[in-house]
Amino acid sequence: MNSINKLFLIYIFCSILLFETVKATVLNALAFSVVEEIQIYSYLINYFNDYSIKNNLNITLNLNLLTPKNSTVNRDEFFSLIDSFLQKKSNKYDIYFYDNIYTPKFEPYFLDLNKLLPKEHINLYKSIENYESYSYNNKLVGLPVIINYSALYSNIELLNKYNKEIPKTWDELLETGKYILKQEKIKNNTNIVIFNGLFADNEVGSVTIYEFLHSYRDAINDPFPDLNSPNAVNALKMMKKLKNELSSDYIFQNLENTFSDLLNGTGLFLKFNYLNLPVNKVYKATILPGHKNGISSTIVGGYNIGINSYLMKEKEEDVVKAVMYITSKEIQRRLITEHNCFSGINSLYNEYEVCKNKEELCEIYKNAQPIVRPTSKTNDYNKYSERFRYYIFKYLYGNDIVDPAKMLRKIDDITRIYYISISSKDSIAGKIIAIVYILLSIIILSSSIFIFIKKYNYNFSFLSKDFWILSLLGYILLIYTSFVDLERVTPLRCHLKFFLQFMSFTIVYIPIFHKLISNYPEENKISIWAKSHRYIFLSIFIFLDILINGLIFIQPYTVKTVVTIDSSKNFQKCKVGGLFSKTVMIVMVTYKILIFYGHVFFYLLNGILNQQYLIFVHAQQCILSTFYYQLFY
């Protein structure tokens, strides 16, 4: 009996153990780090797994960390890898740690954290929904795990040696750099790097360029300078001046040497990301200089955590627990104090215990003037970034005959949508076209006066006065169909143009069609009814136009952007919604073509069977040729 009890207890114990094992959830995360030694993902995973064990969550979070040491993947290839998983709707990974520049790209594939996380948790990250690095299309795509800010590392020993201060403007940096360079050359110190620039031909270079342009605002709260503005031109000129007078093409382009200079103390001013690794003690990190005192800039870099929308539904609750813990105040505090990383939780920088040993980090965060990269300007940010750098570097590393304003215009053309505008400051074409349309309208409307002059009654006997005026209004409406093409293309303008095109046809040609039917040589019920009910006859066609046009709104127009190659101009055009709308348009065009051939049919009958319609025939020849142009133009 005892042995049976023992076996039973063992069975119960094994069953419980098996049940608990089966019940445990395994989550998978994917991350990438350029430098394995400074990555923090493995720490975050370990923190969570320890927390899970202590609190009996029965959740295990596994990390697949890709680095140049264990794979051939680089930053761009890592993006492509994530993209391929998401395109295939793979649930291999539940959590992704991704570069925040890809938030717009990954938005369709990640869950909306607004719907999963408590509001008080999201509110820890102040103003997060205002940044495209985290939110897109009114959807919170990811929360920042770590944030990267740029900093200027200044060699305090050298500055003190020459009684100089850390520069707060680019002019001060230039002046101080030139002075110390001259003095060090006298002492045969040719190894010193005065300013590294960090204008490398990769994404780091794009970040530096964007920050430099942003630092040429006139006031702190001003937006990013227009690329065609004097501020942007002056920024490029200062870039080149700093390179020519303080540095060289090689130093400005070389990224690897900057890291060595930070460790060896061989630089005066070194621009770099604020590092979570110790650098030489001669350096003090501060915010970047600006065009004016008090103006600075930094790109909001870093990595977010996002949740795969294709994960298994039963894992969702556990994934949310993992994300909440990793982005919690407790863990983000540890990132600052233990790993020297920036967190996106603003309130942490007001805590004495956080900043007492991290004064430099806290000072930079509090005084930073952040901006995000223009990741949503195009569908392919990487390609945009490459072209952006190409034109800037063509000036920066080219000869002096390259015009900086021209290069900036080329960059602006990459994403600028061109259209004819009445209010445009760049061209008067819109104003000229508008004036021509208005003058034509006045001429057409003024011509109606001849209808009321007695000696011209014979010439206008074909239609009644009200139908003549209606036809003239139709021609004016036809002119204003082209007027809709002015200004930026919108779905509403697309609908309006389509409506005006076909309504103008109706108003111009249906009065004539009515005349053809009602004056048919052989009287019949239709011709008699049409002659007696001309307004009802006209109203039927107008009603059909409104009805058919209204059906288009079921699958409304969209706007398609046509991106041209090289330096051509991008533009937008109307795109018919879906198959239903295309079918409706085909029906509408077919309906108008039938009316067209109805005109031709009655024109031939009236011209051949009744010679009294000679005047009418001449009028129709002009009208039909106009309709042919309208239909096929």
UniProtKB/TrEMBL annotation:
Signal peptide: 1-24
Database matches in Pfam families: SBP_bac_8
Keywords: Membrane, Signal, Transmembrane, Transmembrane helix, Transport
Transmembrane regions listed in the UniProt entry: 432-453, 465-483, 495-514, 535-554, 585-606
Top-level taxonomic group: Eukaryota
InterPro entries recorded: Bact_solute-bd_prot1, SBP
Family in the record: Belongs to the bacterial solute-binding protein 1 family.
Name of the protein: Periplasmic binding protein-like II
Source organism: Neocallimastix californiae
